[in-house]
Structure formats: structure tokens, C-alpha cells
Amino acid sequence: SYRGGTWVPMFRPTLHDTKAKTLFATPNTINIPAGRSGLSGTRDVLPDEMRELRAITEAIRGVFESSGYGEIATPALEYETVLTRGDPAAADPAYKLFDEHGNVLVLRSDMTIPIARVVSSRYANAEPPLRFCYFAHAYRAVRPQRGQAREMLQAGLELVGAPGPDGTAEA
Description:
By secondary structure, this protein is an alpha+beta fold. The protein has helices at residues 18-23, 47-66, 80-86, 112-122, 164-170, and strands spanning 2-3, 6-7, 70-71, 77-79, 96-98, 104-107, 130-139, 151-160. Strands 3-7-8 form a three-stranded mixed β-sheet, with helices on both faces. Strands 4-6-5 form a three-stranded antiparallel β-sheet. A two-stranded antiparallel sheet has the order 1-2. β1 and β2 (6-7) form a beta hairpin. The longest helix is centred in the N-terminal third of the chain and has 20 residues, at 47-66.
């Protein structure tokens, strides 16, 4: 819970939970300025709003599914080389980290390239058109003073292999 500018853990570790004991040895380890709820550009979604968000996403999901789009989920992390191969503008992603082998991983800023990766690796021999929909968090760098979101929920669809005006009109 948040008390007076400091996060205080709500649960108390058991005697056998040494990792939790280490993490929460001192409850005042994360100091957040008063009036702030966390990292700028991010937000907590509380139960009332979450119910509304879930109702909205379920309505959108119903429309996508009734139009023949299958929902797909991809990892939030991708190899940097996958993103830069698909879009040179993605060569400078907002958030990078390294895996246990030293490979550069990035948080996705969009779902198009991860879906293209899935299509090329898992649906290479599938008969087009392919119809995918998604509900996924995407991440981007922001300027804190502009009030932009670092993390956002995207809902969308990808129609792959439907050429011409009919494909454009459907998508």
C-alpha cells in the first residue's frame, strides 16, 4: 500500500520465505514523491476501471471474432534484431535489456512486427488471407512533461495476404 510517499508491502513474508524477507526487509525502500502513483507515463488500473476496460475489450473482441479474426498473443520482449529487420525505424527502441546469453532484448512498441514474425515462422505455408486480432501492452519512450503514456494497451487487427481494395476495405 502507499503511505505518505512510500510503498509499504501489504503481505508479510512467512518464516520460510527468505526471498520475500530480503525484498521487504525494510518497508521504506521505494520512495515515490507525494501525489505520484508510480513511474511517469504508467498507471495503475483499479477494480472499477478494470471492470469497464474488460467490458470494452470484450465487446471489441466479439466484433473481431465475429469477423473471422483469431486472437493472438506474443511475448512483450523480442530480440532487437527481429524488430530492426522488420522496421529500420525500430532500431532505437525505448527499452532494452539483455538475456542470459548477452542478446539484446527490447520491449515491443507495436504489435505489427511481432505478428509478422509469427506469420513468417509459424504460418509460412498457410493459405492467405490470415486474420489476427490482439489486445496487448506496448511500450514507448516519452517526455515526462507531456503526459504521454509509456505503457499502453493496444487493440487491433492484422489482415495478412489480402491484396487490393477489398483487403484495404476489410482492414
